[in-house]
C-alpha cells in the first residue's frame, strides 16, 4: 500500500452509487472531483468506473474546496456527469455570506 | 445539461464513540453545541448519548447551506447561518480536519466572549482544544484590514465565477454603501493572490467568495483584504465591544 492508513483514513467511496448512475443514464464521459485528502485515491476510482461502465473518466486537476466549488465549462469536453466526493448538496444563498 | 452528483465519503466507522477523556473534559460545560464534518454527521447518536448521560445538554442545528443536522460548513458558522436557537457554553466538533473548527472560532469575532471548541478526532480517538489564542493573530490582522478599508479610497472587489460562491449582486451594494470610494470589480475563478499585485492602485481588496479567503488566507499572506459582509458594516464592527476589537 502506497499510502499509510494513518494518513489516508478509511472513507467509504460508495463507488457503486457512481457506477449505478453512469450505467442507468448511459453516460459516456464522466469527470470526478476530489478534495485534496482523497486525491490519492483517484486511480482507484477511475479504474473502477472505467472497468464497470466503459465510460471515459477525467479527473479534475484543480481545487475542490466544497460543494460550492463546481468547475464550469466542462460541457466543452462533453462531460455529462460530474461526481464530487467528500461533500454534500450545497444550498447557496444569493444574499451573500 | 451536466448532472452533478455528490458522494459524502462517510467514514467506515458505524458510530462515533467518544473516549472517556473527551467526555470528562466536556463535563466542565453545561450546554455544548455538537457539529461534524459530513463524513461523520450521520454517526453521532452514540456520542450525543454519551454527553447526555454525563449531564451535558446537547444542542445542534441544520445550518442554512447544509444538507443535514449536525453538518457544518466553513461559511455557515456565522449567525444567523448557524441557526442555533441559543448560544452554547462550548462547541464539540467531530472530525479530523481543522478547517471547520477554525471557522467556528473565527465566526466568534462579533461575540462578546469566546466559546471554546473541542475537536474530537475519531481517527486519533482523542480531543484537541481550539481557544481564542489560536485565532487572535488573525483577528488582530483582520481588524487592521477593516481600519485600512475605511481609510482607503480605491477598493477592489473580487467576484469569483464559481457558481456556488459567486456573489456579484451583493458585491455591487458596496459601491452604494460607500459612494465616496472608487470601487472596481474584478472577476476570477480561483483567486491567485499573486495576481493582486498587478493592480497596485487598489489599496484594499474586498472578497465576495468563500469567507475564509478574507480571514485566514489573506491575513496569513499579509494582504489588505476584508470580506464583503464585514466591509458593509465596518464602522459598526470596529465601534462595538467584541472579540475583534478586544485588545
The share of residues in extended strands of chain A comes to 5-15%
- Extract low-pLDDT stretches of chain A: 1-7
- Strands across the major sheet of chain A, in which order? 2-1-3
Total of helices of chain B: 8
Helix content of chain B: 25-40%
CATH topology of the largest domain in chain B: the name is Rossmann fold
Structure characterization notes:
Chain A is 24% helix and 14% strand. Chain A is of the alpha/beta class and 97 residues long. In chain A, helix 2 links the parallel strand 1 and strand 2. In chain A, helix 1 packs parallel to helix 2. The longest helix of chain A has 12 residues. Chain B has 2 domains: 115 residues, Rossmann fold (3-Layer(aba) Sandwich), CATH 3.40.50.11850; 103 residues, Diphthamide synthesis DPH1/DPH2 domain 3 (Rossmann fold), CATH 3.40.50. In chain B, the strands form 2 sheets. Chain B has a 5-stranded mixed beta sheet with strand order 3-2-4-5-6, sandwiched between helices. In chain B, strands 8-7-9-10 form a 4-stranded parallel beta sheet, sandwiched between helices. In chain B, helix 4 packs across helix 6. Chains A and B meet through helix 1 and strand 3 of A and strand 1 and helix 5 of B. Strand 3 of chain A pairs parallel with strand 1 of chain B, so a sheet runs across the interface.
Describe the secondary-structure layout.
The complex is a heterodimer of chains A (97) and B (247).
Chain A: H1 15-25, E1 29-33, H2 42-53, E2 56-59, E3 81-85
Parallel strand pairs in A: 1-2, 1-3
Helix pairs in contact in A: 1-2
Chain B: E1 3-7, H1 20-26, E2 31-36, H2 45-53, E3 57-59, E4 90-94, H3 99-106, E5 116-121, E6 126-130, H4 136-151, E7 154-160, H5 168-177, E8 182-188, E9 204-207, H6 211-220, E10 225-227, H7 228-232, H8 234-239
Parallel strand pairs in B: 2-3, 2-4, 4-5, 7-8, 7-9, 9-10
Antiparallel strand pairs in B: 5-6
List keywords for this structure.
heterodimer, A: 97 residues, alpha/beta, 3-stranded parallel beta sheet, 2 helices, 3 strands, globular, disordered N terminus, B: 247 residues, Rossmann fold, 2 domains, 5-stranded mixed beta sheet, 4-stranded parallel beta sheet, 8 helices, 10 strands, 29% helix
